[in-house]
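I'm stuck. Protein, please.
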Amino acid sequence: AKSQNLKKELNIKNDEKIVITTSRLVYKNGIDVLIKAIYELKNIAPLIKIKLLILGDGILKNELENLTLKLDLKNEVLFLGYILQDEIYDYLAISDVFCRPSRSEGLGNSFLEAMACATPIIGTNVGGIPDFLINNETGLFCEADNPRDLAEKIKTLLEHSELRDKIITNGKKLVDGNYDWD
């Protein structure tokens, strides 16, 4: 299967949970907060093995790679660079959680793509995100600029399968009903 091949290519083991973001690496998208949240998650849930996939490129790439090294997360965080739009869905399909802890946001197409791929989402209550993210229904809200809170939300989605399933179902329903991919 394509997903097993992709996991193998990325050297992701079956017992590892995949957190993904698709994002330009710019300040407003809060990718630094996400990397710090992975560090927090290792402390609050040491038994959960995590891989963070960062799809996208941008001016903060070096800074974010340095942060990853400083926090000793080089085995957990994969910078995959620019990925073609139609390949993004393959990455979303293997992922357990989609996060973008934005400091500001427009419509948030990346969230909708994740929801369409049955990947539960975590986002902040900014910009257009509250138009489709209803807390505990279609996703989870995290506080902007709060890595600890984001880590708690990721842990919640990974440990509570009923909530996770509800969010996936409601998210797909919302996207299918309200957003046309054409």
